[in-house]
Design a protein that fits this description.
Shape: globular
Order of helices and strands: EHHEEH
Strand content: 15-25%
Mean pLDDT: 90
Number of strands: 3
Length: 96
């Protein structure tokens, strides 16, 4: 059974930041995490981008202390992805 979920780039960036991965990569830009996440999900894992610039949950807390170029994003793209691909996604980002 192919079950699809929606996962945001913000969720992946949160995991990366919490696990001290990709600390020197900005969220945006040509070589930023947003672009890398898009390439991985759409081109490698056959996922589908379903939204741009969706507000991140923590952005509603009015606490910008952890929001920034090398912290958490204020908004992010959202993707639809098969749950069967989640382990591959995490295996890939573990190397970032």
């Amino acid at each position: 059974m192919d079950i699809k979920i929606v996962i945001g780039a913000d969720e992946i960036i949160l995991w990366l930041r919490k696990n001290r991965k990709a600390m020197k990569k900005p969220n945006d830009g040509t070589y930023g995490l947003g672009q890398l996440i898009h390439e991985m999900i759409v081109n490698q894992l056959n996922g589908k981008k379903i939204a741009d610039n969706s507000p991140s949950y923590w952005a509603h807390l009015n606490n910008d202390l952890n929001i920034g170029e090398y912290n958490l994003p204020k908004t992010s793209a959202q993707y639809e992805l098969s749950t069967e691909k989640l382990s591959i996604l995490y295996e890939i980002i573990t190397t970032w």
